[in-house]
Amino acid sequence: MGLFSRRKSKKELRTAKIDDAFSRVYSKIESIDSWKDPKKLERYILDSCEQIIASTKEMERQKKEYRVVTSYLNDIQTLETLPAQTGAELKSTANRIIELDNSISSAKTIQRNISEDQFTVISEDEANMPEIINRLASDEIYQAKLKKNLSYMEGEKSRWTIEREELTSQNATLKRGAMLLITTFLALILLLGIVIISTSADLTIWLYVLFFICSLGGFMIFMRQSSIQKENHVAIVHLNQAISVLNVERMKYVNVTNGIEYQKEKYHVHGSAELQYVWEQYIEKVKDQQRYIQNNDDLEYFTGKLERMLSDLKLNDDKIWINQIESLVNKEDMAYLRHQLVMRRQKIRKRLEDNRSLIQDERNEIERLMKTHEHYLPEIQEIIKSVDKLCGTSASADINF
Hints:
The longest helix is centred in the middle third of the chain and has 71 residues, at 129-199. The chain has helices at 18-30, 38-80, 84-109, 116-124, 129-199, 204-267, 272-312, 325-329, 331-372, 379-391. By secondary structure, it is mainly α. It folds into two domains: 2-82 and 313-391, no CATH class; 129-267, Helix Hairpins (Orthogonal Bundle), CATH 1.10.287. The protein is rod-shaped, with a radius of gyration of 57 Å.
């Protein structure tokens, strides 16, 4: 309704009655020190003439506004009395414009969870995005598998390392046991030799027993060392295999991790699931943009169609209705608009009456002063005539506008 709102005048004009105007004039006359000075009376008359001219100009503006408001009311009458088919087509077109405008406004408020950087980089790879997402998901699965393998192989490496350390420790213990056995055997042989020499006793059986025990101990130590060597060889083989596999798996893990990190950094995501979500947001945003462009094209088409239809109706101002489309489809809005214009026209008519009365009072007062007082320059009469001619005024007569 903004285009139909009342324009405010730059200065509110006085609407006093004739008695008020006379009182104001008499008070100014009484303030004149000497009527022998014609300049004072002349100044007052000239001020009155300027007021008449200003009020006349204001009336011209008001009459122009009155004609504009009347033309709007005539346009409303034309629109409300259109033939059924023309009215229906006009309303349908206006409704379509309103729908498109609402759709465009709604589209502007939609926020998709995708940054401008993400949108730009995805738009460059749009054709390959499904494949990129699937490959990233596969790489993440493979990375998880490699990580599990690395954890297992680290365990195997640690297990065989510990196994070797235990075997090395056992071998050292056996060596110390062997040295102890040899030392003990030699000590016992020496002891038996001393006993035999001293007592001439037959201790051959004890020598056999001692020899048997030492041989058995040595044999057991030898067998255990042989077993440790074999187990150590097996541990070394498994450890080397674990290290080899671990290195290969670690290299694979590093390569696939680098590839995943590159994709995550490129698309500003934390994983394939988030990339899938961002891709879906991208698709929706592209659709939003396409709808927005299509709606704008449709809006331009239907707006042009409405402009042509309004132009064909020969309205006084067909352009203004493009901004008053709601009134074209809603009878209540149109009725409210007509009411506002009628009230506005009444106010303009009232201001015109007040200005007309004020101008006539000013002109009558000038005539009275000139008849009552003759202390003015002769040129003042020519000025008053010029004002009468310019404003269409005269003393004691109605002013026709």
